[in-house]
Amino acid sequence: MSIFNDDKVKKLEQGYEEWAEERAKGIAGAGDYTTDSGIPMKLLYTPVDIKDFEYEDIGFSGAPPFVRGIYPNMYRGRMFTQRQLAGFGTPSDLNKRFKYLLKHGATGVNTLFDLPTIRGYDSDCPQAAGNVGDCGCSVDSVLDIEELYDGIPIDEVSVSVVTHLPSTNVAILAMYIVMAEKRGIPFEKLSGTNQNDFIMETCVGSAPEILPPRASFRLQCDAVEYSTKHLPRWNPISYNGYNLREAGTDAITEVGVALSNAIATSEELIRRGMKVDDFARRLSFFWDLFNDFFEEIAKCRASRKVYHDIMKERLNAQAERSLLMRYHVQTAGITLTAKEPLNNIARSAIQGLAAILGGAQSLHIDSYDEAYSAPTEEASLVSLRTQQIIGVETNVTNTVDPLAGSYFVEHLTKEVADRIKAYIAKIDEMGGLVAAVESGWLHNEIANYAYEMQGETESGKRQIAGVNYFPQEGRASETIEVFSYPEETEELQKEKLRTFRKSRDDAKHKKCMDELRAVCHRDENVMPYVIDAVKAFATLGEIEDVFRTEFGLWQFPLV
Amino acid sequence: MAGADKILIAKLGLDIHWRGAMIVSRFLRDSGKEVVYLVNSFPEEIVDAALEEGVSVVGLSTLCGNHLTLGPKVVQLLKERGAGDVAVFIGGTIPPADIPRLKAAGLTEVFPPESSLSHILECVNSCSVVS
User: Fold this and answer.
1) What is the distance in angstroms between the Cα of B83 and the nearest Cα belonging to chain A?
2) Under an 8 A CB cutoff, do A131 and B93 touch?
3) Cβ neighbours of B90 (radius 10 Å)
């Protein structure tokens, strides 16, 4: 039953119409407005717009359907994890940056790898030339992982390992496990998150060599299955709406695709004999927050509701923990401008505030210099401070879900939830997400949206301060300090690899690689075999070569 | 139509961000140009494709910091293979300080973030057709 009294709503409806006729007709701003995702926005919202609203639709914090947040006390109980992304150079370069961020109050570390690592090439591979240690840290072997987390209390701080692609993820996760074992840290103490998403591998990023969607999806599920069984505090997947959105989609597609992937993963793991309540508790999500402040907050709230409904009704989860969606937010890199870069501090702060009003568990705030390069140390400190300002200076964390009950926010939350559900239904009709990806449908969604956005920016329909809205004519190019990557990384990594390969037992290494090759063709989890290969000093590139050879390659269809 | 009418667009090396390259390709195609979209490729493959397709302009897209190493290599390989008259454009997250270095290395145009599509088209149109 609605919390609004029917008679009062009827009176209000009448009152609203009179107001529209007498006071709002023909006045400035009376035309059509929409959110970034194209949801109509009215001039004024009243209880009429949420007349069917029942309080149970949102519930209490820490209780189903978790619209108001996943913990009863939210940020009073635990401040959001301030997790700044960092990655460049050699593992020891990045290890120093981690320690710097932790010393200044970061409560988690977020590891980014260079492109050769992400795409599974060793530093001495010809494809890696010119990119070793750029945009992320270079990792070739378990020795690099040891160096990377040396002295970081990985049994205390939560460690995000942004592996992006399932194929890379299985190798890096195996290295992480072997490193922890060597340090004597019990697996149940390992807390962290992998980004492990076949959409990243097959749609979001282009590459010279891509695994077919089904193979990538299988590796994604292998890591989830293995972690569920052995690493109870580890989040083996972070469904990555973020990078999909950055590549070019709206908020509805971002969440719809991520949730479809969660459905596909769950169905696959159930097929493998697991129970939904065993693995659902550690699934996590990753959202991108743009400048459309209320729509992004509504997205955060709505996605928790849709997830709750799917897990409960579609996948029959019983445990409450399986029904709550946890997510990390990164502010939108694509909204950052090269012109007047300091303005990006304001953009990122607004996006970060939306994340907290939306109930995020952890946050990365982009740095103002990211249209130019990876952030300098100074710029990344400004981002961390922005998080701290939101966290302790604004009082927004003192009460839970403060925007609940707003006519507009509740209306928008419901509208976003309905649209996400419709989007998931569309993917279901195509035979599920893996089939939809194979057909090239998602690639074209991305391409069309990105092209349209660019057109709107160039025509001035989409206004960007300092770029097409009151730009400074004749402004000289920006003087900005740019992060420069350590130049010697490639040579250092190559040298390390040479010594590493010499030091291994070749027969043992070959045996492990043969076993890994064989398991690719069986309905069996690859993880134990990858771990054995890592212990036999297989490099990342060698493991990935096995996948490329055994699964074959795929080029995404693009019209 | 003025200027070059056949263009090759490639993602340079391992860079994964295809949004910019795809937008530019579509825009040039919609503006009546013939666009060959070569997915991720390394300089040798790019030059092979440019010669095979007989394009007048090669457009490179990168956001991952490999512009200074791989960009000039494309220009150099084209020259070595007698195709120095093919113009090479590069776009992406390129710091201002690197622009003069790229131009000095023979890249015809550099498009940092926020370069407009119409400006890119003008540059394409001001290139002469490779005979």
Assistant:
1) 24
2) no
3) 29
What domains does chain B contain, in order, with CATH numbers?
6-60+73-114 (3.40.50.280)
CB A85 within 8 A of CB A363: no
Distance, in angstroms, between A202 CA and closest chain B CA? Answer: 11
Question: A-chain residues within 8 Å CB-CB of B66?
Answer: 130-131, 134
Q: What is the pLDDT of residues A494-524, one digit of tens each?
A: 999 999 999 999 999 999 999 999 999 999 9
Lowest mean pLDDT among A381-385, A485-489, B78-82, B112-116: A485-489
Give the CATH H-level superfamily of domain A55-459.
Methylmalonyl-CoA mutase (3.20.20.240)
How many Å apart are CA B50 and CA B39, to the nearest integer?
13
- Of B26, B42, B93, nearest to A127 by CB-CB distance is B42
CA–CA gap between residue B8 and residue B31 (Å, rounded): 15
Classify residue B66 by burial, with Cβ atoms within 10 Å: 0-12, 13-18, 19+. Answer: buried
Hey, are the CB atoms on B114 and A128 less than 8 Å from each other?
no
Q: Please judge whether B16 and A450 are an interchain contact, meaning their C-beta atoms are less than 8 angstroms apart.
A: no
Structure token pair of residue B97: 């300080």
| C-beta separation of A558 from A444 below 8 A | yes
What global pTM score does this model have? Answer: 0.94
The token pair that represents A330 in the structure block: 């990164």
Q: Please answer whether residues B69 and B94 qualify as being in contact, where contact means their C-beta atoms are separated by less than 8 angstroms.
A: no
Distance CA A395, CA B76 (A): 58
Q: Which residues of A touch B116 (CB under 8 A)?
A: 458
Number of helical H runs and strand E runs in chain B: 5, 5
Q: B31 in contact with A at a CB cutoff of 8 Å?
A: no
The answer to whether the CB of A217 falls within 8 A of the CB of A264 is yes
- As for the ipTM of the complex, it is 0.90
Distance from the Cα of A217 to chain B's closest Cα (Å) equals: 19
pLDDT tens for each residue of B52-64: 999 999 999 998 8
Interface test with B, best of A372, A445, A479 (most B CBs within 10 A): A372
Chain B environment of A208 (Cβ under 8 Å)? 14, 39-42
- Residue A37, both tokens: 């995702």
